[in-house]
Automatic annotation (TrEMBL):
Catalyzed reactions per annotation: DNA(n) + a 2'-deoxyribonucleoside 5'-triphosphate = DNA(n+1) + diphosphate
UmuC domain segment(s): 5-193
Superkingdom of this protein's organism: Archaea
Reported cofactor(s): Mg(2+)
Name of the featured protein: DNA polymerase IV
Site entry: Substrate discrimination: 14
Amino acid sequence: MQRVIIHADMDYFYAAIEEREDPSLKGKAVVVCMYSNRGEEGGAVSTCNYVARDAGIRSAMPCRQAKSLDPDAVFLPVRKHFYEEVSASVMEILRSSADSEESFEKISIDEAFLEITRSSESDFDNAREIGMRIKEEVKDRERITCSIGIGPNKLIAKMASSFQKPDGITVVRPEDMEDFLRPMPVNKLWGIGKVTGNKLAEMGIKTIGDLGEHDIMELISVFGKNRGTWLKQAASGIDATPVQERTASDQIGRMASLMHDTRDEEMIFSLLEELAVDVLSRARSRKAGFRSVTVTVILSDFKMSTKSRTFSHPVSDMESLHGSAKEIMQQFLEETTLNFRRIGVRVGSLHEMTGQKTLFDF
Ligand code: TTP
Ligand code: CA
C-alpha cells in the first residue's frame, strides 16, 4: 500500500505564542531571547517572527546584533514551560490525526510526523484534506499557524513542510518527487549538515539533482558505504524509515485543559473521569493491562507535577484506574493553593491481556 506521511511544523513557534498572548505585538518584530547570566547583553536569539526575519534577524544570532538590525523590535525572554504546555496540546491534536497511536512521531517541541496511509486510503487529495483539517484545528484550539508537508515518506514530507512557510501546505506525490527535489540546493536535503554540504560543494555538486546524477562509487569513496548510499538514495527521494513513536510506547495517556484555571473539585474530577474513561478504552482496545497509574497536573504558574501509583500485578478495571487517579488528585489539591490549568491521566507498565478476561467482559 502506498504510504502517506504528514510532517507538521509550527510557524515561528515561541514568537507565535508570545504574539497570541499579547495582541498589541501584532505587526511588530518580535524576538524571543535566551538570556545568559550576563543579562540582556549576552543573550542569543531563540526565534523571531517573520517581521523580524524581514530585518535579517535569525535564530542563534546574538541579541545585541538583532537589536542593531531592528532597534524597534520587541525583545522577550524565553518561557519554556509555557511553550511546552502549548506543545503538548498541539501534539495531542496531531497524534489524534494519525492512523494510530503508534504511527505518530514527535521530533521536536514543535514538529511531528504522522502516518495517514489508512485514513487517506493512500489518496493524496484525501491527504490534503486531512492536512487542512489539522491546520484548522491547530488554529482554532491554539491560535497559532503551522506548515504541513505531505509525501510518500518522511524525507519528502519533511522537505515539503518547509517549502511554503508560514501557514503553508505542500503535497508531493510519488510521481512528482524527483521534480520537487532536483532544483533545490543540495544542503536543503534533510540530513545534510554543514560538513557534508561543504564536501559536496568541493565536488562541484550544487543541487539535489546533481547529487542524484553523481557516480555512486565516488560518493562511497568520499563518504563511506552507508553514507554514500544514503546520499544517492535520498537525492531521488527514497526513504523507507518508519514513523515511530520515540518515547515509551509502554504508556497510554491523555491530557486536557480545564475550561479555565480552577480549583473547583467538581470540574476537576469530572474531567479526570472523562480522561480515565478514554485511557481505559484505549488500553482495552490494545488488550493491555497496566501496573501503574500516573496523574499529571499543570498549575496556573505552568509548573508541571506528576505522581504515580504502582500495583503488584497488572489490572485493567475502571475502579483501579479511576480510584487511584482520584486519590492522587486529592493529594495534589491538598498540597497546593494554586489553580489547576491542565490535568492528565496515564497508565504504564503495560501487559498483554490476550486470552484473559477483564472485568469489563463480564
Ligand atoms: P524551529 O521550528 O526551527 O523554528 P520556528 O518554529 O521558530 O520557525 P519556523 O517558522 O521557521 O519553523 O524551532 C522551533 C522552536 O525551537 C523555536 O520557536 C524556538 C526554538 N529554537 C531555539 O530555541 N533555538 C534555535 O536555534 C532554534 C532553531 C529553535
Ligand atoms: Ca517551527
